[in-house]
Amino acid sequence: MIAQDLMPLALPQLGFVEALAASPESRASFSMSVSITGPLDVAALLTSLHGLVLKHDALRIAMRRTGARSWGQWVRDTPPLTEVTQCQAVHAASDIKFSKYVVGVATRDSATPWNLEEDYPYRFRLIRRSETDHVLLLTFAKQAVDGAVYLILPRELWSSYHALLAGEAASSEPGNGFAEAVRRRADQDVPELAEFWRSRLTRARPSRFPAPTAWVKPDGRLAPRTFTFSLAREEVQVLRDAASRLRRSELQLIQAVLAEAVFEQVPDDTLAITLPVDTRRSRERDVLGQFGVNLPLVLNRPANCDEMITQVRQEWLQVLQNRHITSHTVRHLAPLSAGWLSGYEANNLRLNYLQHLPLTPAGPQGDGTLCIAYDQYPPRTLWDSAAVHLRVGSSADQIDFTLSCDGHTVSDDVAESLANSLHLLIRRRGGLLVQGADTTVGSADKVRSEHAR
Questions:
Q1: What is the pTM of this model?
Q2: Most buried in the list 142, 295, 310, 386, measured by CB within 10 Å?
Q3: Whole-angstrom Cα distance, residue 131 to residue 430?
Q4: Which of 217-221, 338-342, 448-452 is predicted most confidently?
Q5: Whose CA is closest to 344, among 300, 379, 380, 389?
């Protein structure tokens, strides 16, 4: 690699690099586990994984510091097939012991820091329990890819796998889609974007959540308070029907509910919800890379829930229309933009929404011989980049909610009240609860609380 080969980091990459420099102990990984039951052709799977690394240059990205506050990146050559995936056989006496082992491995892979000057931004591991029982663990550096990896990679992996079984030849042409996207954005400067975001950021403020009354050691490691609940099958359809009647998306309904729940807990008349927004252009929709820019959705306290939902829709559409910000935009707005546009430190309220692929017994492109299930072995680590962080995973027949509240800055009483209110409002706004009923949150027993490890 020579100096002229270096590319600048994209704006979303800079956000992660700076956040990790400030908190080196933070986790910065996407993790996916794939349980595979049936007669797996291991050679075809390993060839398919190698093909993904060849096709997607984001999986070959390397980066290093080039100055006090500057970084550069370049694209490595594709490693040999034998070096892409680590294979191992495990003999476990019970399902519980096997699950414990796999989760432990996934946790270590996810929590291990990334040194992208030396290492590739992925860790692939195939664990064999028997000839018909395998688990594929896939871990990715967030400096290199965004949440679209959960949609793009499974689709392409199984498409390639079944093409190989059908006798088609694997591609040998390396891709450069992400590098091209980074270069296209390096010189882009749209002044109108700066004007739009200036109007929003002048109103954006962190939410003032009531802090713990008991003294907490500032440098002590305090696990976040975590609450989980889910909607399944008929409940999911009722909620989506309710959103459709309102001419709103499922995400917009969740945004409105989160804002309502937070307004109940804080004295502020304005709040900002930070979300990762995909900035891919149409020709980049199947390109792996870090395109997720963190942008604030700035909302005013509404008079009622209908006004809240209408405001969310209008503001969210405006955010999407003005999402293609670059480093030039951030510099135009400095210091107003500090920590708000693609950053983490300015806001303390965050929402992540991820749509999962529909799962079929044979996978997206299956032929009925394999049974594939995703995320049965999640790592025991979460990266909480805000005082209050709601994660939503949405699939065809289930929506999972995970709310994390930082114990240093949000009291336990407020965290529990926020979780119960969120659960109640999701059910009420989604048409699952009659207005005026269950005002004491009788359904809160379905919200599971724990201190995340």
A1: 0.86
A2: 142
A3: 45
A4: 338-342
A5: 389
* DSSP 8-state code for residue 444: G
Short-list 450, 437, 394, 422, CA closest to 232 = 394
Contact yes or no for 209/348 (Cβ under 8 A): yes
43, with CB counted inside 10 A (0-12, 13-18, 19+), is exposed
Q: Report residue 390: phi and psi, to 5°.
A: -105, 125
Q: Are 265 and 414 in contact (CB under 8 A)?
A: yes
| pLDDT classification of 434: cutoffs 50, 70, 90 | very low
Candidates 70, 128, 120; CA nearest to 98 is 128
Above 60 in pLDDT, residue 55?
A: yes
d(CA 425, CA 300): 18
Amino acid sitting at position 254: I
Reading the block at residue 444, the tokens are 């809160």
Closest among 148, 260, 146, 227 to 401, alpha carbons compared: 227
